[in-house]
Fold this sequence. Notes:
Helix content is 20%, strand content 43%.
Amino acid sequence: GNMRIKxxxxxxxxxxxxxxxxTGIIRPQDIGPSNSITSSQIANARIRYSGEGVVARxxxxxxxxxxxxxxxxx
Length: 74
């Protein structure tokens, strides 16, 4: 029957490595002649986006911020 797919792409922009990962389920009859499929034909599609570098590190909360959220959640 159906097939489970998983794809990954890494791109470097401004010295920042950015990763995208796609998973989902497709039907074999939806695969086109060029061995491709449109995103609207992927069931249970999940897209995960992450980065490694200066920008990604700046977006993480520091230990003090995490501690304050535990004792004072506002």
